Amino acid sequence: MASFYEEVEEPVSPPGQYFNSSVICSYVFGFLELAVPIDDSQALTLIKDVFLPINPRFSSIMVTGKDGKKMWKRVEVKPEEHVKIPTFPEDPSTELYDQYLSDYVSIILTEKTPQTKPLWEIHIIKYPTTNGKGTLIFKLHHALGDGYSLMGALLSCLQRADDPSLPLSFPSKATAVTKPDSSQYPKKRSFIKKLPSIVSSFFNSLSDSGWSIIKSRLIKDDKTPIRSGFEGSESKTFTLSNISLSLDQIKGIKSKLGVTINDVITGMIFYGLRLYMQEMNNKSKIAESTAVVMLNTRNIEGYRSVKDMLNPNSKGLWGNQISFLQVSIPKLTQKRISNPLEFVRDAHKLIKRKRRSFGVYLIGLILSLEMKLRGPEAVAKNIYNTLENSSVVVSNLMGPVEKMALANHPVNGLYFTMTGLPENVNITIMSYVNTLRITMRTMKGFVDEQKFKSCMEKSFEVISKSAMET
C-alpha cells in the first residue's frame, strides 16, 4: 500500500468539484471545547500517526489532469504547516478571552487554505474560555467530504472518556408515534390503503423538485433583516454565536405535543427567526423567506468507521452525499403570535410531508444530469444561486451520547459550522451527550448577533413554557 507521501492520483467526485470551484470554496469547521489545558507537545505526532492515516484525502491536493478532469494527487505532508497556534494578549478575564477567540474565529472563517497544500488546518487555542480550558478547531475543505464524513473522521481520533475500549454510541432515529403493524391487513387491502399516500408522494416529489428549480433560477426571497441581497456575501466577515439546550427538556416538549425532536427544533428556529425579523423590521414578520435544509442522503443510523466509509460496498460511503430542500418559513401571523406552538405543529406537518417526498433524491439526480451535460462549474453556480436567493441555511449532525476524550483531553463541548456560501445566516445543530448546541453564523454589521441569539433563546423559552401548559 502506498504511504501518505507517494504520488497517487484518483478522480475527484462531482460534489468535490462543486465545493472547490471558481464559484464556491466551502469549508466545514469542527470545534472541540476541552475540559483541561491543552498539551500540544504531541500534536505533530498525533497528526502523523492518527489523523493523516484516516483518509488519503488528508494527504492530497486537487489538480487538473491533462484531460481537464480534477484529480486528487497524493503529496508529502508537513504537519507543522497545517497547525496554527495563535497568541492572544495575556489577560485574567475569561470574558476577554471569549472575545479574542470570537475575533480569531471571524478571521479564519473567511480565509482560504492554499490549493498547493492538502485542504485542512488545525487551530490550537490554548487559552481558557467560558466553555473550556482550551479549544481545538478543525478546518476541513468541503471538497474532502460532507459534514457526516468529516465528523466521522474526527470521531475516529477520539475515544470514550469513561472507557476507551468501548465504542461511542449515537442517538437512534426513533419515531415519535408508533404506527400500527400493517401485517395484520391482507396485502391487497394494504396496497389499496397505501395508494393515496403513494400518489401524494409522487406529486409532492414533483412539486418539491420543481420548486427547487424555479427558486434557484427565477424567484428570490424578500430582502429582510436576515437577507441583505448583497452580492458576494460569502467574502464578508461573519461571527459565531451559540446556545445550548437540554435534550431532556426538548424531549419533554416532544412528548407533550406528540411530535419529534426535529419538529420541536425546526419550529423553535423558525419562530426565533421571525421574532428577530419582527424586532428589527415589523413588516418583515410576514415577508417571503425560505430556509434551505441540507440533508444527508445516506439511509443509515449513526456513523460508520472511516474504513467502512471508504469501502465501495458500504452504505455509508465517504464523500459528499448531500442534497437540499427549500422550506418556506411560516409567517408570524396573529394566530401564531397568540399561539407560538403553531410553529412546531407547522414544522411537524411540513417534515411529515417532506418524508413522503422523493424530491431530495430528484434534486440530486437533476444535479448529476447537469454535471454530465454542463460540467461542475454550472452545477456550482446553480447551488450558489439557490442559496443566494434564500434567507437561511440549516443543517444538523448527531454527536455521541457519551463524553469523549482526545489524547486524554476530555471534551466539554462539540459544535460545527460551514462557510464559503452566500447566505447571510447559517444555523447548524449538533447533539453531544445530553446537550443540543445551536450555532449561528451571521454576517457582521448586517445581523445583530446578540439580538439574534436573544430571539432564539426567547423562542425556546416561550415554546417550552407553552408546551408545559398544554
Automatic annotation (TrEMBL):
Q: Which domain of life is it from?
A: Eukaryota
PANTHER family (UniProt xref): O-ACYLTRANSFERASE (WSD1-LIKE) FAMILY PROTEIN, O-ACYLTRANSFERASE WSD1-LIKE PROTEIN
The record's family statement is: In the N-terminal section; belongs to the long-chain O-acyltransferase family.
Residues covered by the O-acyltransferase WSD1-like N-terminal domain: 65-265
Q: Which residues form a coiled coil?
A: none
Q: What membrane topology does the UniProt entry give? A: Single-pass membrane protein
Grouped into one coarse class, the protein's main location is: membrane
Q: Which organism is it from?
A: Stylosanthes scabra
Q: Which reaction does it catalyse?
A: an acyl-CoA + a 1,2-diacyl-sn-glycerol = a triacyl-sn-glycerol + CoA; a long chain fatty alcohol + a fatty acyl-CoA = a long-chain alcohol wax ester + CoA
Q: In which pathway does it act?
A: Glycerolipid metabolism; triacylglycerol biosynthesis; Lipid metabolism
**Where does the UniProt annotation locate this protein?**
Cell membrane; Endoplasmic reticulum membrane
Report keywords, A-Z: Acyltransferase, Endoplasmic reticulum, Transferase
Record-linked Pfam families: WS_DGAT_C (PF06974), WS_DGAT_cat (PF03007)
Name assigned to this protein: Diacylglycerol O-acyltransferase
Per UniProt, residues of the O-acyltransferase WSD1 C-terminal domain are: 318-463
Q: Which InterPro entries match?
A: O-acyltransferase_WSD1-like, O-acyltransferase_WSD1_C, O-acyltransferase_WSD1_N
